[in-house]
Amino acid sequence: MIDIGKQVKRVLAPDGSFIFNVGDKTSKKKRSLYIMKTIIGFVEECGLNLHDEYIWAKPSCMPSGSEKRLNNTHEYIFHLTRGPGSHKAYIDEVREPHKEISIQRARYKAATNKVVDDDGTAHQPGVLRGINMKGKIPSSVFKFQTAGVLRESGKHPAPFNPELPEWFIQYLTEKGDIVLDPFMGSGSTAIAAKRYGRDYLGFDITPRYIEMAKSRVEKEHRIAKETFSKIDGLMDF
To answer: What is the value of pTM for the model shown?
Structure first.
């Protein structure tokens, strides 16, 4: 993984991001230190910056617990960049709706400086406190669906639902950007990229996974083409 990290640093755009999703494991009845060592290696050996870390709380996964170990129902997602604050981000694209109670709790408070109108009337303008009407900033704990909801999931040992790359593609890229997945697998990242108007590059060392990814991407393109054709037909009508 350190070799991969060095290549990621080499090709990463100055304002780009590297999203690394990894599951934990146990070995010889001990929790593995693999994830910690890998992230430290990305920073100290590859020169990447650890911007943030997220938790993927998986709503449905295979039971893994025992009398001495709880069920492991999460995975880690690490966000790395070229340097502190160097990456672009579009928070408004991923804001979440406020709960109604949060909007009700928003109150106006008086500004410290009075404003005098043209007719000489003085008043204190109000400002909205603690709420952005575009929505709230999401939590660092995600609840993306697992790939078990996909028909193709049984054909790859470590698939993930397109919801995961879709979220980060919206947050960290804009239309026309290139999304690179060095572990393309069954093609979920490519599909997510095309859905949001991004280009993609991907690699995999297993030929049958490459063919699977090609098939899924071609199917996605065909569905999109058919959908647009129907829309054009309706507009012509």
So the answer is: 0.80
